[in-house]
Design a protein that fits this description.
This protein is an alpha+beta fold and about 280 residues long. The protein has 7 helices and 10 strands. The protein has 2 domains: about 80 residues, no CATH class; about 180 residues, Jelly Rolls (Sandwich), CATH 2.60.120.600. It has a 4-stranded antiparallel beta sheet.
Length: about 280
């Protein structure tokens, strides 16, 4: 972050000779909503970007799709009652489809370990979701319904460089993670990372970090976790921390389902060749 702030400059081309200082705003702890609408307003949000960006900015294919439903640069987006109803229904179907792909995916290739619940959207190791020239649209939806930006470093096996991600929506028994229950995740010793690892809990409705009484619904190897004698760690998720487990606990909300992502920064070879395996999340007794 220090290097980014030191080297990044954003300014108008007209100011290139004497660029002003770039100001950085700390948004940590601020409340914001970056989730698109799940009703007709979604199209109005897309149309706003079409009007703000140069014509054809998203390529001929996407521009053609936008045009087919009445979105064109420099023209009002004003569908009649019939088209508005079609688009409203399409939002509901599209949202439901994306949720099914994300939280009930049936493609076994998403499984990182054949006998575990941890999944990856990067089927075949392609950050572009390509396989012999064909794009896997379901895998792309699996990623972008829950995330925003991808990079080659997320998918390519480069030991010690970049990051790797493992997501879980289900417990070891195959049931959705329930905010009213208490769960345990056993993280085996010697996590194969050069830098650090982390676990973050997300709300399945917003796909954003779960909002709780904790400032951040996360734990990491950089925090003061209580570890077992062999170097492993037991992490807990639930409305209340189990006795004596406060340091290893992430709060959840009754009535809300959740999912989690386990991140490895500077992942090492044992992750890629699966010599090291992450345990499934289990209900705590």
């Amino acid at each position: 972050m220090a290097g980014l702030k030191a080297g990044l400059r954003v300014y108008r081309l007209a100011d290139a000779a004497r660029p002003p200082e770039t100001k950085f705003i700390n948004l940590s702890g601020k409340v914001m909503n970056t989730v698109h609408a799940n009703n007709f307003r979604f199209y109005e949000e897309v149309n706003q970007i079409i009007q703000e960006e140069p014509a054809g900015a998203y390529g001929p294919d996407m521009t053609g799709i936008f045009t087919a439903i009445g979105m064109q640069k420099g023209k009002p987006f004003a569908p009649d009652a019939r088209m508005k109803q079609i688009l409203t229904d399409s939002v509901a179907v599209g949202n439901a489809t994306a949720r099914a792909i994300d939280f009930r995916n049936r493609d076994p290739r998403t499984l990182i370990f054949p006998d575990r619940r941890w999944t990856t959207p990067f089927i075949g190791g392609s950050y572009e979701w390509l396989d012999n020239g064909a794009r896997n649209f379901d895998a792309r939806t699996l990623f972008f319904y829950a995330a925003t930006i991808d990079t080659p470093a997320m998918a390519v096996a480069m030991p010690g460089i970049g990051s790797q991600y493992a997501a879980s929506n289900l417990d070891a028994a195959g049931n959705p993670l329930d905010g009213a229950k208490t769960y345990r995740l056993h993280v085996p010793p010697n996590v194969p990372v050069k830098d650090f690892w982390s676990v973050v809990v997300y709300d399945t409705q917003t796909r954003s970090m779960l909002q709780t009484d904790q400032q951040f619904p996360s734990l990491s190897s950089e925090k003061s976790l209580v570890k077992n004698a062999d170097g492993s760690a037991d992490l807990y998720f639930g409305p209340q921390p189990p006795a004596g487990k406060q340091a290893n606990w992430i709060q959840t909300i009754p009535g809300k389902s959740w999912f989690t992502i386990f991140r490895l920064y500077g992942p090492l070879q044992p992750w890629f060749d699966k010599q090291w395996k992450l345990d499934d999340i289990v209900e705590a007794s």
